[in-house]
Specification:
By secondary structure, the protein is of the alpha/beta class. The chain is built from twelve helices and 14 strands.
């Protein structure tokens, strides 16, 4: 069974003896490059998820927001928009701010502009990261480390070999996940991908052999705080979420509406020359972002408490998982009537 590639729903973590006095005790802080985050949650660089308000909320809660590239705004200067939103968040007290850029065009100019405006995480964000142009872009960013202190985040990939190539190229944080996102159709359109739990686990194992200090970001496939706990057990240093934030008050409106859409959808990419690999999902009012994320934080702490773990390292060392049958989810979900 261990040779099978697994999704989050395929496994359950095993409870262990605990001496913790309270579920509030576990420390869920993490390290992303040189950044210390109190919360292992990152908002996805999607135009329907992360704008200036999300940057502020995520920083306030100890996590990180990664600003979208605004690739849907084809008639606007994306750097001007990003710079304006960075400065707004900075003026309102945000300390850590991530910004996504693509691998085409003048990567050096884009990165310098964002770094000069106090962004401290540059995320190279493409659907298939294991590509020559990605490695060229990484080399460009690595050279900027002589002038700026910042984290190089890049993705997405889902294989151990790609993770190693990213590590050797100089990336600080690697986004793992091909096709598991709620609005992503990459697996349906292309037939490629890897079940997310296994992808994270194999990424972590590939870095254990000589690539210490490089962070893994679980990107996609996360629907609950329990999924986040499973991802963190598998080796993720943080979880990047989109759908779990959709419709909350800090998310931007797109075309005047609250929605959740994949950034490779036709509406977002604006590219009729390639098959769309994302969809749009209408969402309603899903409450206050700060309250929603706070509940996820409580859920992660409760997960650690189930095995008596005081921190993320102990979570990985104190328990194991079991592979469950397809009927497990029916047993797991609460009954509504």
């Amino acid at each position: 069974m261990r040779n099978k590639k697994l999704c989050f729903d395929d496994i359950l973590l095993i409870p262990q003896y605990s001496e913790l006095d309270s579920r509030t005790i576990p420390n869920i802080s993490t390290q992303i490059g040189y950044l210390h985050l109190e919360t292992p949650i990152i908002s996805a660089p999607m135009d329907s998820i992360t704008g200036k308000y999300m940057l502020l909320v995520m920083d306030k809660l100890g996590g990180l927001g990664v600003l979208t590239r605004h690739i849907n705004l084809l008639d606007h200067d994306e750097l001007a928009i990003q710079t304006e939103e960075i400065q707004w968040a900075k003026n309102h007290g945000a300390l850590n701010i991530g910004c996504a850029i693509g691998i085409r065009g003048d990567v050096d100019r884009k990165a310098k502009t964002l770094l000069d405006n106090e962004c401290n995480v540059i995320c190279l964000d493409v659907a298939h990261g294991d590509h020559k142009k990605m490695y060229d872009a990484i080399k460009t960013l690595v050279k900027l480390k002589d002038m700026y202190q910042f984290v190089i985040m890049a993705g997405n990939v889902c294989t151990p070999d790609a993770v190693k190539r990213f590590a050797e190229a100089g990336v600080d944080a690697i986004k793992v996940g091909i096709g598991p996102g709620a609005a992503c159709t990459t697996r349906l359109i292309t037939g490629f991908g890897c079940p997310q739990f296994t992808a994270i686990q194999e990424a972590y194992q590939s870095l254990e052999a000589g690539y210490g200090g490089i962070s893994i970001i679980a990107d996609g496939g996360l629907r609950t705080s329990g999924d986040m706990v499973k991802a963190l057990w598998a080796g993720a240093d943080a979880c990047m979420i989109g759908y779990m934030l959709a419709g909350t008050n800090a998310t931007p409106r797109v075309d005047g509406r609250k929605m959740y859409r994949g950034m490779s959808s036709r509406a977002a990419s604006g590219r009729p020359d390639i098959a769309p690999e994302g969809i749009e999902i209408e969402v309603g009012d899903n409450g206050q972002t700060e309250e929603v994320v706070s509940e996820y934080i409580k859920g992660i702490r409760s997960g650690l408490a189930m095995c008596g773990a005081e921190n993320l390292n102990q979570l990985r060392s104190r328990t194991d998982y079991v592979v469950v049958s397809p009927l497990s989810m029916e047993e797991t979900l609460p009954r509504r009537s």
